[in-house]
Amino acid sequence: MVDIFIIEDDKALSREISLTLSKWSYNVEEVKDLENITKEVLEVNPKLILMDINLPCYDGFYWCSQIRNFLKVPIIFISSRDSDMDIIMSINIGGDDYIKKPFSPQVLVAKVQAILRRTYSYNSDLKSDVLRCNDVVLNILESKIYYSDENIELTKNELKILHILMERQDTIVKRDEIIEELWESEEFISENTLTVNINRLRKKLDSIGLIDFIITKKGQGYIV
Questions:
Q1: What pLDDT, in 10s, does the model give residues 160-176?
Q2: Cα–Cα distance between 120 and 152 in angstroms, integer?
Q3: pTM of the predicted model over 0.90
Q4: pLDDT the model gives residue 190
Q5: Which ranges of the sequence are coiled-coil (predicted)?
Q6: Nearest to 49 by CA among 115, 120, 128
Q7: CA torsion angle for 178, 1, 101, 67 (degrees, to 10)?
């Protein structure tokens, strides 16, 4: 897993930051496509993001709001802008800290360490609020599934089914296992009840272009 993802259009500065943090044994990656930042963040799934405000196409505030639709990953803004309004805006939009350029390597490392410690030291046992399967994103807190530019709301059972399958993607999940997790008991639950729920879910997924996302393995179960 990537520890820190750098979103900075100044390549020299980005490289300098990367080298500094790598010396502290952090796994660091730099953004490649500044026009598709949200997609890269979802692919990289970092523990922390360092985000410049002045970026081409859209500014860091825009990208922060987009990322917040999917992830709670901590974001530290780095910018030469230091007005009170910029700092307030960065906090209101979902940023966790603000570093003014130019900054010393020591300050950068100290802030990164503090954010990571505060965010993860007491939450190491918590499961992720987001599951991904290629370009499909399941937001558990929102009960929504995202694909391409589309998203749909899910019922409680639909969310549970997708959660079970996506958490174990590329693995066949038996029908009785899904029934047991879904209703917390195998008693009085017919096979047809699960079939009805799966079929309804498939229709929803079809509506946003996710054809055959859930595959039936005859006599075995389901797989995504």
A1: 899 999 988 889 999 88
A2: 30
A3: no
A4: 62
A5: none
A6: 115
A7: -20
